[in-house]
């Protein structure tokens, strides 16, 4: 490696990368998503997936769920930087794999094929709450809800069965039991 | 029913209620209704800059020397984009600014109209928050919130973008207060728990090699903070060093003060930072110019970090005790708690830290700020020293540009009070000092305001001399003229085999004649013999002055920590430079 000719310091050790799910409650106002996304891009953080929708119509509060990766130090910074934004009300942070948290993603698959093939598709999807949203004699649109990795695998398996289009949401999250985020 | 006001009237009503006395700005198509309203508000004086960047830095200088927010008024499009450098500068150095920008009428937004730009989009990453006001009835709430966001917590710039039709529309006005309360972002009003204070005091008591490392947070917290800091430092008898932005919070000529730390800090300050067993960081942010190589930064110390911004803590350096607080609040409670329990601390502690002080004295003996003076040519360090000696008896305000002269000013000018030192540290904006001096002079009429400048930096915003002349602001522009972008030249010498690529300015203006053409006074000093007389002449002129101080072209700024090196491996001067290995040079 070429020696540094820089007036900046050389990088130090890099910590272990972890995947986190960060939930942010924000005022649903113009530009708020750009502020969140801009914070991530401006500071070089990752967004793996993003899900946003208004959850309180009266107070105009949106709940944003972000899946991200980073060292513990970076994850801490993401949390602290998010909390500084004026339209942000609160921030919750979960490590992937935490037991008390539920995660779900939703996917729509469009598959071409005869009824025999489609039966096969339904069978493969059985574990993931499949709902047939549209059916013709040549095609089917099927909805599943599952974890990210499960949907990844499903999409791969369906490829040979005539999968021609996939649409997916980002992950959403909720705590188990009567407890809520605070 | 309350009287309806136009958007432009609401702007001024809000400024009046916020007790704004000065706005810095530049008119244009999209802010004309606001400018039209100016005449009806005698308590607010508008300072017409020559460029929006200049207006922005002036507002910064005003804010930093007065403790009040600076207000900036610019038009849409180029007016707003020109203000971006000043906003970013204020963001990096935590300066409270409220920028009001005009915008094209709402029905034209998004159509690429004349002088349209996405102002809130462009300024989103360089403001604490910004707003595009699309309803005149939102305007008073947004304006007051803007002042609150700018001045609370860690201060910073905000921007309010007001489309032209909203400036004409009639709406309701209301004075809103403290809408931000819900946020930690606001002034940390929480009481600091005694457990945290006791931990703090316990660390102080256990330490035998302590150091205070203080920064701009002390200045931003207000003059009270400096008072308490002096009390705490004297109570403990510990040594103290300061960042570039913190200079003046503690007296520069006090024996407990080790001088500035960091890349061009003193030998004693940096070595003490490296070898200490307790580092007490108050209002500083472990910036990369301070820490150098993070892995080797002060390896054996316990670290306490006091900061009002939670995201500053643990960002670069892990600490043992983190306290999110305003500096004044923390120091006040800490001193109270400390005094209750430790009446004779200094005496009992003297012995514990005596070896540490002996070591510090040894480092001090290196006299790392020394330089080889000359009787033929003016050394830039000598010029700053003379300026200090000849101005120290009066309350002097110093601004700087960015580069070698800035470091020499920080090293050789001793500050005894907060808010007397205005320099662009975080962003490092060349061209900051001259317009900043204008803002400082406005906030401090009758006081001596000197911009210690480099000839390259000062040319970036030289047009603002015209502003100084217009408002009869007797600022002194003290140029250390070496015809080079000195810091660039120094790095090229040390890092790039003396390939002085584009760092020499082959055609400079005659600064004396330039001064005259602006209608101010030009003075030139070429030899050490005439320097004192000329500086005295400058001080005594009640007009703006450009002082062309012709200095040694090849002088380098020492001491320095070569990048990639820990604090205890400083280069002290050119003699040592010859001795370091090729490998060492590369790492600078």
Supply the CATH architecture of the largest domain in chain B: 3-Layer(aba) Sandwich
Query: What oligomeric state best describes the polypeptide chains here?
Result: heterodimer
Largest interface: A-B, 26 and 33 residues
* CATH hierarchy: architecture of the largest domain in chain A: 2-Layer Sandwich
Could you report the average pLDDT of chain B, rounded to the nearest whole number?
A: 93
Low-confidence stretches of chain A: none
Structural class by sheet pairing and helices of chain A = alpha+beta
List the helices and strands and how they pair.
The complex is a heterodimer of chains A (182) and B (588).
Chain A: E1 18-27, H1 32-42, E2 49-56, E3 61-70, H2 72-84, E4 88-95, E5 101-112, H3 115-125, E6 131-135, E7 139-146, H4 148-159, E8 163-168, E9 172-175
Antiparallel strand pairs in A: 1-3, 1-4, 2-3, 5-7, 5-8, 5-9, 6-7
Chain B: E1 5-6, H1 7-17, E2 22-25, H2 32-37, E3 45-48, H3 52-66, E4 70-74, H4 78-92, E5 97-103, H5 119-123, E6 129-132, H6 139-151, E7 157-163, H7 164-168, E8 170-171, H8 194-206, E9 210-214, H9 216-220, H10 223-236, E10 240-242, E11 257-260, H11 267-275, E12 278-282, H12 288-291, E13 302-307, E14 321-324, H13 327-341, H14 345-365, H15 380-391, E15 396-400, H16 404-412, E16 421-422, H17 433-443, E17 448-454, H18 455-460, H19 465-470, E18 476-481, H20 486-495, H21 511-518, E19 521-525, H22 528-540, E20 545-550, H23 574-579, H24 582-586
Parallel strand pairs in B: 2-3, 2-4, 4-5, 5-7, 6-7, 9-10, 9-12, 10-11, 12-13, 13-14, 15-16, 15-17, 17-18, 18-20, 19-20
Antiparallel strand pairs in B: 1-8
Helix pairs in contact in B: 1-6, 3-4, 3-17, 8-13, 10-13, 11-14, 15-16, 15-22
